[in-house]
Design brief:
- It contains seven helices and seven strands; from the N terminus they run H-E-H-E-E-H-E-H-E-H-E-E-H-H.
- It is α/β, with parallel strands linked by helices.
- It has one domain: Rossmann fold, CATH 3.40.50.12140.
- A seven-stranded mixed β-sheet has the order 2-1-3-4-7-6-5, with helices on both faces.
- Strand 6 and strand 7 form a beta hairpin.
- The longest helix is centred in the N-terminal third of the chain and has 21 residues.
- It is globular, with a radius of gyration of 19 Å.
- The N terminus is likely disordered.
Length: 274
Amino acid sequence: MRYRAALLLFPAALGIWGVLYAQRPFQQYEAAEYYDFPLPADWNVKTEWTRARLRYPSVYARWGQDLNWTIDYPRSDRHLLQGVRRLTRIDARSVEQVVDLDGTGDVYNWPMMYAVEVGHWALPDSQAAQLREFLLRGGFLMVDDFHGDQPYHGVYSEWQVFLASMKKVFPDRPIEDLPDSDQIFHTVYDLDKRFQVPGWQWYRSRRTYEAGETGKTPHWRAIFDDKRRVMVAICHNMDLGDAWEWSDDPRYPETYARLAYQVAVNYFIYDLTH
């Protein structure tokens, strides 16, 4: 009997070991803006929740420039995670997890992902397919910091570049504007009255928008699953990443930083409860 029980338990133990082995450890990567950014003292403490950042190939990769995914990283991520710890009871890790759509199962270990500057991403078919699988399994993706919907410099607009990859992920699911009444705006904070969250460029220009006239209107959009759950939260004509990044700098207005944190908290709680 003991031998038979051992035979039955061995596959289960092997499966658990495989899952743990597949979960990649934390690693800090080269970034466009920050080098040797200091790690928090508790960076390796085990927690219940981790916020992932998607590493994706850029449209500029052919010229050797492939760091769009690192914009604001890791300062923005770590400021945000400090805020999550202070404003919620989520047992959040103090550092982000960089995640790849590389065909392995690692991405499924990190159910909440953030992607920045998606007006410059270029997902190949294989990565689009895995992102679709990730989302249909219950994953959540928040995209941010892309602006305008008209071509600039005679090339495609950032909105068009975003759509080119997003349509590979979900060719038949529409992108919808989120009404003020949507649950995602009322999980913790009631955010009926939202406004455009600008990036650091506000300090120099005093403008809340980028990309000219088509960048003036903030859009809170989403792609839903079959049960009307938000799978992809789209922050267009905004830069919440910069708001988190510069939230400790008195030159950046607290009003914008506050809304950026409130939106993030609502989105995270929504993902955990829907």
